[in-house]
UniProtKB/TrEMBL annotation:
GO terms for biological process: nucleobase-containing compound metabolic process. Residues 324-432 form the HIT domain. The record marks 437 as: Important for induction of apoptosis. Its EC number is 3.6.1.29. This is Nitrilase and fragile histidine triad fusion protein NitFhit. GO terms for molecular function: bis(5'-adenosyl)-triphosphatase activity; hydrolase activity, acting on carbon-nitrogen (but not peptide) bonds, in linear amides; nucleotide binding. Coiled coil: none annotated. Its cofactor is Mn(2+). Cleaves A-5'-PPP-5'A to yield AMP and ADP.
């Protein structure tokens, strides 16, 4: 085993607390629920009124599960704050639990004993920062955690009825999570205020989402004004089913939620609507994923996007296990040496390294020069390069890097395919700092090729780090 791989693995082992977080792509492989063409399933959306009484709130969840099962639903979507609504910051922190706590164990057993998937729309997940995450947790029909999304957009706003500063109590999430394979298709996870940001909805659709879910505790005034129109807009613009479980009524003397749990089809039609009067209610709908293909064909909006003129790129999203070798000009990059893939790019271990940790990032489309890339490829390529740089500096405990591209033969490019060199730098690694560029030019002559086994081991270490970070 090379020194490089030993270093990467040592860093990974030393940070076990970060690796308990779920990766949504893993859950894709575990779910065997039918989502193929021509098949439909019944889903349920719940409405409830949570208070600071966790036992009573869990009783409401049990009742909704019972009703969903009686309707033969394969998946039940529950609102944000389905665990509780605290009356103040101190109480919220006191009542919060980690995802391996007692309440989550009860939710998992409830899903398992009823053989139903649960979307727990917003759990107060205690973290190590003295705050919580607003965590959307998916539990499968076997009671296993299938995915966790931590809310990115925090509601710091003043309305006619209330002033809320979610950031006083909640730490923001760090990334979108890839859509998860469920009985309801590929589900993209969001929470409440995320609804107002169309960009994340479009990104989730680009990542393969067929259904978007927005569990919420919308304030009464904003819900009355915007709730339904926003749900229908997200469905129409992404051509996805939209499911939004909602809190309803007064949680305490200071806070009231709008309600109106809803299911919307990709054409913007409402399939189920619980209204805003009942504190405990359930809506159901039968969804057929085979209808999506005909919609995409008749209204091919995502094929008509002008990637040459504008782009939308997600940063820091988890990669998937590479499934195929990639072309690098006329060379073949073995998929086992690829440690990260984005929509348009891939990162892989190097045949000849100038410094420890020297890797390459290239585009999936074979293009000789930077000027040949479209806008989407440019954005994705540089975002990927920055993410890889951050990863290498975390693993090798460095604070500097040489990031360079040789754009064309006269600039030293030997492989006619756009690619970046990312090299973590250390003090004194060269007598003259810019000697790195000379070494880069001369590496074919001065550096022996590394073994395939060494490169594969290195890639596996990087993948493990990214999966768990």
């Amino acid at each position: 085993m090379s020194n490089l791989v030993r270093i990467a693995r040592r860093i990974i082992v030393s940070r076990p607390q970060q690796f308990r977080r779920m990766e949504s792509s893993d859950s894709v492989e575990r779910c065997s629920a039918p989502t193929s063409k021509g098949q439909s399933t019944t889903i349920a959306v719940g409405q409830m009124r949570s208070t600071s009484d966790k036992v009573a709130n869990f009783g409401q969840v049990q009742e909704l599960v019972s009703r969903a099962k009686s309707k033969n639903a394969t998946m039940l979507f529950l609102p944000e704050c389905c665990d509780f609504v605290g009356e103040n910051r101190a109480q919220t922190l006191e009542l919060s639990e980690t995802l391996d706590g007692q309440l989550m164990a009860q939710y998992r057993e409830l899903a398992k004993s009823n053989g139903i998937w649960l979307s727990l729309g917003g759990i107060h997940e205690r973290n190590s920062e003295g705050k919580i995450y607003n965590a959307h947790v998916l539990v499968d029909e076997k009671g296993e955690l299938a995915a966790v999304y931590r809310k990115m957009h925090l509601f710091d706003a003043t309305t006619k009825e209330i002033t809320l500063r979610e950031s006083n109590t909640v730490s923001p999430g760090e990334r979108l999570e890839r859509p998860v394979k469920t009985p309801a298709g590929m589900v993209g996870l969001q929470i409440c205020y995320d609804l107002r940001f169309a960009e994340t909805a479009v990104l989730l659709r680009k990542l393969g989402a067929q259904l978007l879910t927005y569990p919420a505790a919308f304030t009464y005034a904003t819900g009355k004004a915007h709730w339904e129109v926003l749900m229908r807009a997200r469905a129409i613009e992404t051509q996805c089913f939209v499911v939004a479980a909602a809190q309803q009524g007064w949680h305490n003397k200071k806070r009231q939620s709008w309600g109106q749990s809803i299911i919307v089809d990709p054409w913007g039609r409402i399939l189920a609507d619980c209204g805003n009067e009942k504190e405990l209610d359930l809506g159901t709908a039968e969804i057929n994923l085979s209808t999506l293909d005909s919609l995409y064909q008749s209204m091919p909006c995502f094929e008509h996007r002008r990637n040459d003129l504008y782009s939308l790129t997600a940063y820091n999203i988890k990669g998937k296990e590479p499934t195929e070798d990639r072309l690098f000009a006329e060379n073949i990059v073995d998929k086992r040496t690829i440690f990260y893939e984005s929509e348009y790019c891939f990162a892989f271990t190097n045949l000849r390294c100038v410094v420890l940790g020297h890797v390459l990032v290239s585009t999936k489309r074979v293009t000789p020069r930077l000027c040949g890339l479209n806008c989407a490829e440019m954005s994705d390529l540089f975002a990927t390069v920055c993410m890889v740089q951050r990863m290498l500096e975390s693993i090798y405990q460095t604070t500097s890097a040489t990031v360079t591209v040789q754009d064309g033969a006269h600039a030293g490019q030997t492989v006619p395919h756009v690619h970046f060199h990312v090299m973590p730098r250390r003090q004194g690694d060269f007598c003259i700092n810019d000697q790195v560029y000379i070494e880069l030019d001369n590496r074919d002559e001065n550096k022996p090729p590394r073994t395939m086994e060494d490169r594969i081991d290195e890639a596996q270490s990087y993948r493990a780090f990214l999966d768990c970070s």
